[in-house]
Prior knowledge:
The protein is globular. The two termini are 32 Å apart. It has one domain (6-291, 328-435): TIM Barrel. It has helices at 35-45, 78-90, 139-158, 173-178, 193-211, 241-246, 250-262, 288-298, 303-314, 317-324, 336-345, 359-367, 378-382, 386-391, 406-410, 427-437; strands spanning 6-8, 11-13, 17-19, 51-58, 94-100, 118-119, 124-125, 135-136, 163-167, 216-222, 234-235, 267-271, 350-353, 373-376. The protein is α/β, with parallel strands linked by helices. Helix 1 (35-45) runs parallel beside helix 2, helix 3 (139-158) packs parallel to helix 5 and helix 7 (250-262) crosses helix 11. The relative contact order is 0.13. The protein contains 16 helices and 14 strands. The strands form four sheets. An eight-stranded parallel β-barrel has the order 3-4-5-9-10-12-13-14, surrounded by six helices. The chain has a two-stranded antiparallel sheet with strand order 1-2. The structure holds flavin mononucleotide. Flavin mononucleotide binds next to strand 4, helix 13 and helix 15.
Amino acid sequence: xxxxxxxxxxxxxxxxxxxxxxxxxxxxxxxxxxxxxxxxxxxxxxxxxxxxxxxxxxxxxxxxxxxxxxxxxxxxxxxxxxxxxxxxxxxxxxxxxxxxxxxxxxxxxxxxxxxxxxxxxxxxxxxxxxxxxxxxxxxxxxxxxxxxxxxxxxxxxxxxxxxxxxxxxxxxxxxxxxxxxxxxxxxxxxxxxxxxxxxxxxxxxxxxxxxxxxxxxxxxxxxxxxxxxxxxxxxxxxxxxxxxxxxxxxxxxxxxxxxxxxxxxxxxxxxxxxxxxxxxxxxxxxxxxxxxxxxxxxxxxxxxxxxxxxxxxxxxxxxxxxxxxxxxxxxxxxxxxxxxxxxxxxxxxxxxxxxxxxxxxxxxxxxxxxxxxxxxxxxxxxxxxxxxxxxxxxxxxxxxxxxxxxxxxxxxxxxxxxxxxxxxxxxxxxxxxxxxxxxxxxxx
Length: 444
Ligand SMILES: Cc1cc2nc3c(=O)[nH]c(=O)nc-3n(C[C@H](O)[C@H](O)[C@H](O)COP(=O)(O)O)c2cc1C
């Protein structure tokens, strides 16, 4: 089934494999994409991937997400995006642009700024974001953010994309409203499951009003939040404790899915977990060295970031692994069963995400109707020609992705690419491969 075409709304994909969002430093300081971005995206299109879902591209001009990541918060970003998108489409690959807003999970910034701490409610989160604490958004700020999403959606359409995806997962701003441990508001945007959904609902309505009902729009949702993973210190503690430790359960996210279907959403893209990085979304090893590196590179931004880095440097590795590596292990197609629950609950296509690499795992997920399409990130970063490997009848590539998660964390500081030493014969070979991805010269 992998090679069977699939149509969502009016867009036909030539097979069932999508490149999932991979964000990295592919832009100028102001957020305009460089040719490194175009070259990066084209590499998947050249290898027969049916469609690309872009990195989360920020809708907010003020929140960097992170530095040198692309933005879509201003009309000036449309033209350079359009050029790259056309280059991808010429190769027969569809392009879906994912929009989002990190809210208080904005990890890096040139200088610390207030805006990077905005969230549904105020609180403290040691692991995610760099601001000492998050600050509750006013209703005016909520309305501004809804408008940001709608304007960004218009730009997505004007850039010539085949579709738009709105991320309501990863612990980003929409997720910060959905998650009952983060959202403690007493107004219309907090409390009951209906109220927590209101922010997303208003975004979808504003987006549809701006771009019409004929344009493909999907939502990326976390099936279950598993707030207790990755291990984190988050305050205040929220009651009932189920909300604090789990966040949204399946019942709540299925409710969101049904509401989204009623609102005219065209597909759901299912992963799990709250926050990036996350063992439920990026199953595999916990990359402690990379996390330390990241913490050190952001420690100047706030007291919290400094304390976080100090703790990570001071505590011995075995102890840190014991605490932080809890829940991190690889499971093939980790969210396929969740995707199936959504497929059974709604009548719109469902994309499953996380831990797919082997042909038989993908085939089974499709055949058993767990999902309609599969989205992949790390295995394609390691082997962009994965589909050719399948066509040759092999179940997995010779040097498969080991799900070491080095790429997942390094992306904030280093060029995008595979950083698993075991996949290369030398450091030189690894760097050469990474440089191929990040060439800023136009190699078209
Ligand atoms: C380097 C890297 C960057 C990522 N950037 C994003 C992103 O910008 N937005 C997003 O929604 N997911 C992002 N992800 C998550 C992936 O889209 C995907 O959900 C995750 O890696 C699990 O899929 P996989 O097992 O196929 O890698 C990123 C993953 C990696 C490895």
